[in-house]
User: Fold this.
Amino acid sequence: MPVDYHFSFGPWNIHEGADPFGPTVRPTVTFAKKLKAYKQLGFDGVQFHDDDAVPQVDSKTAAQVRKEAKAVRKMLAGEGLVAEFVAPRLWEDPRGIDGGYTANDPKARRWAIDRSKRAADIARELGCDLMVLWLAREGTYIRESKPAINAHRWLLEAINAILKHDPKIRIAIEPKPNEPMDHAYIPTIGHALALASRACDPKRVGGLIETAHAILAGLDPSDEMAFALSAGKLWSVHLNDQNGLKFDQDKTFGSANLRRAFDQVWVLEQGGYPQTGAFVGLDVKAMRTQKAESATLHLANSRRVFLALLDKARSFDMDLWRQCIGDRDYETLDLAILEHLMGV
Ligand code: XUL
Ligand code: MN
Assistant:
């Protein structure tokens, strides 16, 4: 019997609809209400930024932070949910204006590491051992504005400091090539795993691959996942979709390119992803036009598309696949995949 997948998303995936050109269009949904929605939508795992779990985390003592995180764990348990990961949100604080770990200001770099240690404390209290680093402002608007060689060394120092702070924590780097920066450091999973290999404890550093981010880097998300899977380093995914090289769209999984979505499900299946126990995260956003009462459909729909494509991946005629590969007849394989997806 194939192992089942389990699904997660973050509270930010139910949002008010603001974009860079317009204000919010939907009322705020409270954290408690969002938690209630998880199971109804078919999800078991909650992804957190540190301040999703403990608001104003910087203004609280370490003891207070741990106490509040403990209370959140109780709330999760009450809903039958578990925490998947905690990500330090360094990109909204004024101290992180020029990046955290790679800021030119050493005080900002120290703050970023301290805050990340607090995020690790929160993860521990929430009962999870995974930290995600999306390196939002760790990059530049103009190349000359940071000493890039040092900046990469500072990134490694920050990762080592977090690993040393918590001997159990694992770090999954979520690469993204741009936005908000013109160019971000560590734009691909190749960069992430190269950095991981140089960490003080390489086996505790891996990756999270987001569909849209790989596409923005001009790469195929399923091959990026395959690269991480081949090293046993795919510790989470952010499935969504992206219609070409534009702003990070976080569209419903499969909504721009169904075959590309199929390929991601296929590679997760072939890589034994569910057996690793990792979650399938859906980092999707509702369209701004969506009315408040149906602004969670993008989550349920993404999961539904994933499961439909899983069915397609599991029901594809693998004898035909072997025959096509053996004959080097990729034209026949191409049509077989298309017809399988079209149901003809
Ligand atoms: C940014 C992004 C974030 C991270 C979590 O593009 O994907 O949602 O996944 O902070
Ligand atoms: Mn993401």
Summary: The longest helix spans residues 106-126.
